[in-house]
Structure prediction request, 265 residues.
Amino acid sequence: MINRNRLLFFLFLFTLFITNANAFDWSINELHYQYGKLDTPNFAGGGSANTQVLTFQHASGWTYGDTFLFVDYLNDDETDNFNDGDLYGELYLNFSLNKIIKKKFRFGPIQDVGILFGLNAGDKAKVLKYLPGMRLSWDIPGFTFLNTDFTAYIDDSAGLSNGGAPSEDNSFLIDLNAAYPIVFGGHIFNIQGHVEYIGKRKNELGFEVSDWLLSQIQFRYDLGNLLYGKSNHLFTGIEWQFWLNKLGDKKTDENAVQALVVWRF
Prediction:
């Protein structure tokens, strides 16, 4: 079984490498700081705690597609083995039909189809998920991008016998991810994020893990443009996290607004 700390570390090194690779058409790297009160699922003790989240996020385009990756470091003000200096990361590689065949594919508002491979990994819970599937990219006026992803949700977690959270049956994921810029009166705003649905499954103890709906939407204001005339560099705003059946717990529905600062480099 893969060591989760090592996996996340290698994901981070991979990102640093591809950021400087000449084969990439474009790349965006960001550091996020978020602060807010997040809920703890019932199976981890319940309640809520003030939580800090530090995120490294990377997106890039390359010869045959694009890459998206983030690594979160989460730490709250409770010592309860939940969000106590924990790491969580996701990596997605999308292989674009347009780039592979070197022709513009269109079917109505669909401007591209991708073959997608995802990887989700959690450190302390020793969770590892594989997400093979497909992406539809939409051409909708005003949006920087708008994608719908359809993937399997295949479990390869360590499980209880190896000191992790219970392993689970396989399931599926549907995700809508988008960004929409707004400019008026010399001020620049951006709304971006994703909404995901993951189907229910059972864990290794035979208990049902509920399906969930997770929405994480950032409302950003381009502060760098206001302060020193440099746009797309420093942002402030909020992230709204709405999570029905958080982490598969039917008794935990989260509705949290977190303060947000983003530095893009």
Summary: DSSP finds three helices and 14 strands in the chain. The longest helix spans residues 4-19. The helical segments are 4-19, 97-101, 223-228.
